[in-house]
Amino acid sequence: MEFGLFPFLSEDARRKLEALPELYRTWNAQINVVSRKDLDNLWERHVAHSLVLGHVLPLKPGLRVADIGTGGGFPGIPLAIAFPDVEWVLVDSIAKKIKVVQAVSEALGLTNVRPVWGRMETVKGPFDLAVTRAVAPSADLKRWMKGHWSSKPNTALYALKGGDLSEELRGIRHKIHPLPQWLPGEFYETKVIVELPA
To answer: How far apart are CA 26 and CA 100, in angstroms?
Structure first.
């Protein structure tokens, strides 16, 4: 695990991140939340890919962040490990995925994770920021967050995406952060963080 790519990680965070592959291997055998191929590349395809958000999120202690469509807990769990003084609300409409999020959070003693089974539109706000990973088009994400934002400055949604987004982002105010500036390797070449101001 190349922790040097993420200078914001504490020793405690590194220890917890090192425990993730084994935890996901155990849970994946019962409830399939990560593909077999991805399980062998958990650091590159899930953990590092989640942590890269830490380079751009304007995080401060006490903020409340929604993870829309968290699946098995990405990007929310790695970010909750990295930023323990921020509250992370991990939302997914599939109950068994939220069960895995709950179990992994408990195994690591993460007190700043709140797993929620449901659709983002129905989750009680407000939120200061939101994160998501390849869940839905930007216009849908913005619609789901409508009325969920806090009155704090810099509220925005940060979506991990890849490929050609010119059509999807037409007419939507946004900023692009290409991942290769932080993460080397072929897997990240066409991947970006799309920042969508609230």
So the answer is: 10
| Phi (first) and psi of residue 179, to 5 degrees | -70, -30
**The overall pTM is greater than 0.85:** yes
Q: What single letter denotes the amino acid at residue 137?
A: P
Yes or no: say if 105 and 76 are a contact pair by the CB < 8 Å rule.
no
**pLDDT tens digit sequence for 96-126:** 999 999 999 999 999 999 999 999 999 999 9
What is the DSSP code (8-state) at residue 149?
B
Pairing label, strands 175-178, 129-133: unpaired
Alpha carbons 149 and 155: distance in angstroms, whole number? 7
Just give the CATH number of 3-197. Answer: 3.40.50.150
C-beta of residue 1 within 8 angstroms of C-beta of residue 20: no
164 CB contacts (<8 Å, ≥6 apart)? none
Q: Where are the beta strands (DSSP E) in the chain?
A: 64-68, 87-92, 113-117, 129-133, 156-162, 175-178, 191-197
Helix then strand then coil, % of the chain, to nearest 5 = 40, 20, 40
Joined tokens for residue 17: 């991140």
